Amino acid sequence: MNPVNQTLFIPLYGKAWVSRRHILLNDPMAERIWEAEAFPIRGKASSKWLAYNMAMRACVFDAWTQKQLEPGSNALVLHIGCGLDSRCMRVNRGAVRWIDADFEQVIEVRRRYFSESDGYAMRALNASCERDLLALPEADTAVVILEGVSMYLSAQALRRLMQILSDKYAQIHVLMDVYTQLAARLSRHRNPVNGLGVTTLYGVDDIQELVRETRMRLVCEHAMTPKRLVDSLPGLERWGFKMLFPQNLYRKFYRLYELEGMP
Question: N or C: which end of the chain has fewer CB within 10 A?
Fold first, then answer.
């Protein structure tokens, strides 16, 4: 895998780490994959605080996805940049179609652990390739998960991604985390992905500008580290996490946006 693809091991490690300790997330598949792949994680990427952060992000995305899949939903779920995440197992997806998509190298590894079925498929996809995006399946409603993806796409590529999805699906719901431009600048030297050789990252300061030429609108901004999740941490680690990730300061670097487009 190239360095960008290898960054998927950072959230995988975080989810496996908390799952083994029965904190925040129950993810036996993450534990299994992490044990089998044994990818070397060092430095900031191996911090327990980052593990908690990655797990909280996963919990927020899980809860949002589950909310979109209320009984009777006929939505198509598109998890773009899925990495080795097992959200397709953590979330009760019912009868909806679910597609986990990522670079071909990632999907090749993913197929060692996940099996396709009538309602579940894996797909090689480059989120900055128009041809790949235009070839996504048709549906009236799409639920799009963009977790840990936007910061690897240039402003032009991210804007085009949103335009294509907006044009393709009459009703669309998107949850996407973004770095601010300040965070992107600082990430050249102070980001766990630097240890994997990744130094070029991108930020979004104006979400309205990003979707200006689409049918999408901002629904709300979600907390990346909700109080209910922080309060579930054990003892002094709850206090330590609050000190390291105060919400008002955290928002200067990292945001989580819900978008939607309607007919």
Answer: C
